[in-house]
Amino acid sequence: MGTFIVRRLLLAIPTLFGVLVVAFLLLYVAPGDPVEAMIGERADSVTIARLRAQLRLDDPLPQRFAHYAGNVLKGDLGNSYITNRPIVQDIRERFPKTLQLAGAAMLLATVVGLTLGVLSARRPGGLADRFALGLAYLGISFPVYWVGLLLILLFAVTLRWLPPSGYGSLRFLILPALTLGMRSIAFLARMTRSAMLDALNADFVRTARAKGLSERVVTLRHALRNALIPVITVLGLDFGAYLTGSILTETIFSWPGIGRYVVNAISRRDLPAIQGTVLFLSTVFVIVNLLTDLAYAKADPRVRYD
Amino acid sequence: MVSIALLAAALATACGSTGAPTRHELIDSRDNYDPRSLDPAVSTDVPTGRAVGYLFDGLTRFTPDARVEPSLAARWDVTPDGATYTFHLRRGVTFHDGSPLTARTVVASWHRALAPATKSGAASFLFPIKGARDYNGGTVKSIEGLAAPNDSTVVVTLEEPLAIFTKMLAMPVAAIVPEKTPPNFGEHPIGTGPWKLVEWKHDDYLLFAKNPNYFDGAPKSDTLRARIIAEPSTAVAEFESGNVDILQIPASEAGEWVEDESRKPLLMSTPALELVYVGINTTRGPLADARVRQAINYAIDIPRIIERLVGGRGTRAAGVIPPALAGYDSARKPYSYDPARAKALLAEAGHANGIDVELWVGMVPIYQRIAETMQAYLNAVGIRTKIVQRESAAARAAARKGETDMILKDWYADYPDAEDFLYPLLHGANRGAGGNVSFYQNRTFDSLVTASRRELDETKRSALYRQADSLAFIDAPMVFLYFYDELYAVQPWLRHFTPPVIFNGQRWMDVTIDRGSPTSDR
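Structure tokens for the assembled complex are given below, as produced in the milestone run.
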């Protein structure tokens, strides 16, 4: 297990280097000039030229890349062109909030999705199954944006149970977590259902039943455990996507996380901020994938990494 | 898109009346992105400029209706040639940390804003000061035109006479900061302003507390929170829930608000100093011919665009000077919608078979819709138009380099004066980077604008503005679309709030929440 982790981490280095190169080059070829965003509407060409020189934007590309990569190795992602704040500090401020939102969404999705899936599988075609199916359809087909606004309208504006947006106590977390987790609830419910159906028809379940175990134990300890592998895959992929892709949810709910930060950075051509966040989020993705793989081993003893 | 419209409709019906809130705090919902910094020197965006207006003072300031009035300078004298200003500072003004304001502080502040290391994008607003440009370029050690003969007097010598200099001093970049500023000043600002910064949660809110020692009397309310709400529909929901006190209604939704009787009493309108126009590059191909540019103006049914796409919230433009500013000519008739005339003008210019042009537009939904509509009108008269969509900054950069035939964009005034439209948008000195994306150059126009910049007499200056504007109108270096009328919704419990004409014109000094009678008259 130890060597596996070390090997995976070592493999991550070329991956992240690739990310660094691509993020750097993509922004170089994309249209738009960061200085344009810095100066606003009214400027003179002398100021533009001077700012470009100060930001080393006119240096040859390899030199700029070497300079940037060198700083990254020292743990310095540079300062934002627009705010002049260190990118590392910006990420440190915002990432925990994104993590909090993603965590809450994931927790919600796991609890609701698994429950729905197990209930559906126990009596296919039953009431619970049809209800879960309907919910899953809605969850998958409704766009996040639409659902978010609908939830705000219903629970905040009309019923006044929850605040429409903002960051704060648990009450602020519920609507965005539901919005973000909706897709996973749907996916998990369906995945769990089909995996559970397979497991429930397997020989070992018949054996378990024959031993006289209660249906509860059979379902939860024997069948569910074996149905978990595909579920973990979905969870791992979704969690990674949440950390990087909660942009819409954060925007709708004014959640001060990293998704909004990236969008702002992109619209202002804040190169160091974009590169820094892309690099950081890629690292997170690599780590989440690793954790997912480790979770497989935990769920299924046949999976071994040595 | 459909879903948003539906939702807006649903919101409209869901709107219920709410009693006054129990909070004491004023809450603003206008910022839709995080201010870049609270350091006045680097302020180029609206959220930053607004916050700087709360925390700092300049020698002058704007009222909500965009007049300029004394602030840190109690009064000033101008030499008859208009080139030297002597400012007499208010005495006894202190910063939030208790340190005193002196003439030296003022001189140091402007040196700081102009220092190359500050990397200010707004430094050019101080270039009228003699030697400021060289100092900003790093070629001289100090600014020649600034002097502090004693603690309460600042003498400013200009490169050349500039009548509107006192308006420039009310801009964020000219705000006065303490002599010693720490490196993280943008996060922990200290000013002389009516509000002090309590807390800044990035992308979440800015919290201000009143400065009880403010030289002009403390604000009437204790705290002010500026929430940062990225999504306009969310801001609407916050307003409906009574969580924010004011709301800037997006242009695309304005129509529904105006038509809703129950919400009508909440609405306030203000003529924003914002021109929406199409810059026509006067140096590119057939567009160099004024007749072709006039044809473009005649080809488009602009009143219909304003009605259908802008919710009727625009005043048709017949020139670049907005109705709210001196120099505006209410008698001048805009180009009418006359496709036949457009075709005739094209033929007269030798393009009977039509021309091909590109129309650039940034990623602003409302402008994209306007561009598509214009495309249809232009195609109908033989001006075959191809739309090029780019991220806004990229489109602007291309236009500055002269790479666009036409670009649909807007222009917000930095300070409330017709000069801020005529000079940057159309003066030959500002072709390209300076803001003149039409690359318009007309010697008569330039000399009129140059003369107006020097003219100290208001009436004469307005006449010069009007003359220059009329000249540009005929030359048609742009499609004159409309001046946007900003629509605000204001909660019934809010007292003494006037929507500002210029972005930093409202500092919430007298604004209060009336918890007693939410339905009484304001």
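Residues 1-17, 518-522 of chain B have pLDDT under 50 and may be disordered. The radius of gyration of chain B is 24 Å. Further analysis is deferred to the final report.
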